[in-house]
Amino acid sequence: PLQKDWRDDIAVWREGGDTYQRIVDKSDERGHPISKSMAHRYVNKVFTPHEYKPTSLKDRQMFTEIRDFVLESYLNDSEATLSSIKQTIKGTFDEEISEAVVRRIREECGLICYNTRYGHSVREVNRPLRLSFCEQQIAERNMFTNHVFTDECMVQLSANSRFCFCLRGDVLRRVKSTHKNPVRIMIWGGISWDGPTELILLDPSTKIDSGLYQVMLDSAYKPWAR
């Protein structure tokens, strides 16, 4: 995975609306005590690229092409790994470089590691329709005070975390017990200007069709709406 320094989280926290005091508290909890002024400097730090030429290259003239290749690799795939880029460079340029060199090139190009954010994928045919609808609502200054937005979500009992933090050499703590078939449940609910609706719990194997959805509206939504 991309190497991320603990200071990168400070900018993410600030962007999420945390105060500098909250950022200081979070940093202290992670074992990195800082002051409010330090947090402010980290957030507003201007990146200054520096010239870097690795000494491990057999052909120093290839560095410019390799640097451009690393930048293009991340622009094409923002989740590219150091090891994959290293192997591609060896196959393309016949240069054996370390992951540290790739990391230094990445820093020189101004690439910064951020936490991934996901959004709904909208098909091309639906994008202009949604854009037109949103522009119309903005023009009408619609605040959606009499609308309810509903959705379903699948929740499972056990967590499947991809990362864990252990002391160096403590390999036993890396082994975590997981359920092959964790208990899951589907939850239906809605949110509006006046607050959340009542929740409906469904079996994960339940198929929500038009008939069942009407039953859900009659049994949960209508009493709440009244």
Automatic annotation (TrEMBL):
InterPro entries, per the entry: RNaseH_sf, Transposase_5
Membrane-crossing segments per the record: none
Annotated Gene3D superfamilies: Ribonuclease H-like superfamily/Ribonuclease H (3.30.420.10)
An example molecular function term from Gene Ontology annotations: nucleic acid binding
Stretches assigned to coiled coil: none
Domain of life: Eukaryota
Protein's UniProt name: Transposase
Species: Pristionchus mayeri
